[in-house]
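Thread: Newbie trying to understand structure tokens

Hi all, I'm a second-year student working on a class project, and my supervisor (Dr. K.) asked me to get a predicted structure for one chain before our next meeting. I've only ever worked with sequences, so writing a 3D structure as a token string is new to me. If someone could post the tokens and maybe explain what I'm looking at, I'd be very grateful. Here's the chain:
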Amino acid sequence: MNRQANEQVVVITGASSGIGRETALEFGRRGASVVLAARNETALNEVANEIDHAGGMAHAVVTDVAEWPQIERLAQEAITRFGRIDTWVNDAAVAEYSTVEEMSIEEIDRIIQVNLLGMIYGMKAALPHLKLQDSGTIINVSSVLGARAVPLQAAYTAAKFGVRGFADSLRMELEHEGSQVSITTILPSSINTPFFDHARSKMGAEPKPIPPIYEPSAVAEAILFAAENPRRDIIVGAAGKMMTMMQKVSPSFTDRYMLLGGQMFKQQKSDRPNGHKDNLFTPSTGMGSTTGEFGGRMTQSRSLYTHFLGLHPNRGRAALAAGSVLGAVALKRRTSS
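---
Reply by user tm_fold:
Sure, no problem. This is what the structure looks like when written as tokens:
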């Protein structure tokens, strides 16, 4: 069993906004020591102040995760400041909504560097410290798009698939060594964060999340749970679970379903004209935010599926088995009547 959250030293990349920010604040509320990493120094300092006032301890380190020396420095600063690392959360990400044809090579490179290499660098930087302790957890925030592709996000999807593959390989190496270090992959469904305001768009309109939409607190709950209770994968949101199940049953059918009426293109395009400044190459500015512009009745603050089943896979398997038995009994009664 890992340390309780209030005893942990946690490193979080992408901590200036969205999921990373909400997770950092929740760790801070529980009294953890949190090392915050992102490119936006103003937003990082704001989060650090909130954590300090909430009873935790915070240390902000301006970091571009696409640069290995900066990730090395981040790990070393955590050790220098707090003496150890218990949980490392890889969350930083950038995005572009565009067809592959319209994307430039520079844009593809940047997305892969941040979303894939940035997480690989994080795993590499944390690993020697966790192995030396023979304890701790690396948590990678992938996406449901790391299990099922959608159009208009090819580079993002490729990176998220890659994160899962790299993490799965590392996990097997650690298990082979008998290490107590755990690796968890979080796969969120659509989340109401500033991610969509920060993304580059070539659709002629601002992007929007594919419904249904969940609040960042739903993902933060899964991350904090995994920091104390090692899990292999955690899907956040029943919609994401359904998408991954459809992918397992029939990828080609899922393709056709998504393309029916062009729905997967339409659902990612808002009615607002494109005009904001993205953070693909340059960091966002200002104080930052946890949530985006898709809150209210449109979102769910908690995923009941994740809370009751996703965090507890044995319950999920038992529910599936019970459902199968009940279905078989119902079918037998229907055929015998």
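A couple of things are worth pointing out once you decode it. The radius of gyration is 20 Å. Confidence is low (pLDDT under 50) at residues 322-332. Feel free to ask follow-ups in this thread.
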